[in-house]
Design a protein that fits this description.
Blueprint (H helix, E strand, L loop, with lengths): L2 H7 L4 H24 L4 H15 L4 H4 L1 H9 L22 H19 L23 E4 L5 E4 L6 E4 L15 E5 L5 E5 L4 E7 H7 L2 H7 L1 H9 L17
Parallel strand pairs: 1-6
Antiparallel strand pairs: 1-2, 2-3, 4-5, 5-6
Helix pairs in contact: 1-2, 2-3, 2-6, 3-6
Amino acid sequence: MNIEELIKEKPHLKNPLELYEKIKRLNEYCKHEKDRIKLDNKTALIDIVLKGFSNIFDIPYESISFLKDEILKSGKDPLREPSSLWTLPIQIEELFQEELKRMLFILSKPFFVFLRKEGMQASFMDTGKCPVCETDSSLAMITENNEKIIICPLCEHGGSFYRICCPYCFNRDSSKMEIFLDDEEIRADYCLECNTYIKSFRENHFLKYKDPFLIDLISLPLDIITQKRGYIRRSPNIIGLKIIE
C-alpha cells in the first residue's frame, strides 16, 4: 500500500504521511549520492544532505547553507553521533524554534542511516537499545515464529530481542505487563514496572504495508491513547514525534 492510498484511507494522517514520504526520499537520495561519489568525509556528506533537503522540501539552498558552517564550527560529528545535530546552538530569528527542531531532526536522519552496515545482524539483547546508534526501542515486529524483532526508528536497524521483556528496565514478569490493541490489532505493550511502552505488530501487518515505519505512523492514535494513560515512549518515530497529542 503506497502513501497516496493510505492518505485516502486515513485522511486524518495526511500531514505525517506526506512528511514521511519526503523523509524517505531524502534518505534514499543521500544513500544513493554517498555510494555514487564514494566519499565518506564529514564535509562532503553534509553537502549531500543539505542539497537533498533543499531539493525535496523545496527550500532554497541559500537559506539553509549556513547550517554547514554551524555544524563544522560546533565541532560535532554527525557521522559518529547524528543526534548531536538536534542540539546545535543556532540563534536565528527567521525560524521558529519548533520548525528548527523538526528540520534538524530530519537532517539527522540520513546520518543515522549512514551508520547502518549492510547485512549487520546485531541484536538488542544486551541493553535493549539499538546496537548501531544506541537509540531506545519503541517499535517491534512479531514474526510468524513468535520471535520479536525490534526496529530502530532512527538508523532503521532491526535485531532480535526477548519475546517477553521490557527493553527499558528488562522486566520479564508478565504479571507486570499489559497489552492494548487498536482497531488493526497493532498493540502497545505496557510495562507497569517502569511506566513505558513499545508498539508491536504482527508479520502479517508488514506483509500488508511493506514498511514498519508506516505501521508506526498509521497507529499514531494508539500512541495518543497510551500516553494519555501515562505511559512513556522513549524514542521518536520516523518523523521525530515522541510526545504525541
